[in-house]
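How a chain folds remains the central question behind the approach discussed here. This step matters because it turns folding into a mapping between discrete strings. The sequence in question and its structure tokens are set out directly beneath this paragraph.
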Amino acid sequence: MRLTGLVMLGALALGGCYTSGKNSLYSDKFVQPIADGVYVSGDNTRLLKRMPDGRYAMLLNANKKANEVRLAVLPGQAKTFVGQVSTDDGNIYVAIRPEKKGFAVLSPSCTDVPDQTAAKGYGSYEETLSVCQFTSAKALESALTNVIAAAPASRWDHYVKR
């Protein structure tokens, strides 16, 4: 089962994700290409608020607790960013592209064979948790670039500003 878009970002467990566990791969490379606001994709609603230090605070649907989101430039990918979402269980990574009316999210999942394959040689696969674990930003960026290259347009979840 593929986790869709930012639904994954609110996951309490990291199962199936591209992750770095509790270790942040990005500590000071923040960009803020997405405006503050409420964004909707189907039944999923996200409130994004820019923070002064370059992060975003993101509220998921009716949750009262905000997750911290950091965006970093993805080298070699025009207008595509690595999204690092910090949860209580660790950091989850996605690809994010700003769009005219919002943004799109591609959520790699190590329960999908193509995403496992894209991560091989760059990260380690933990079979019991079905996660791909990365220890460096460069390794993660290489795997994300492979996922983006292989992903059909239908894999991107589109969020529109309300």
Remarks:
- Residues 1-14 have pLDDT under 50 and may be disordered.
- Residues 137-150 form the longest helix (14 residues).
- Residues 5-161 form one domain.
- The radius of gyration is 14 Å.
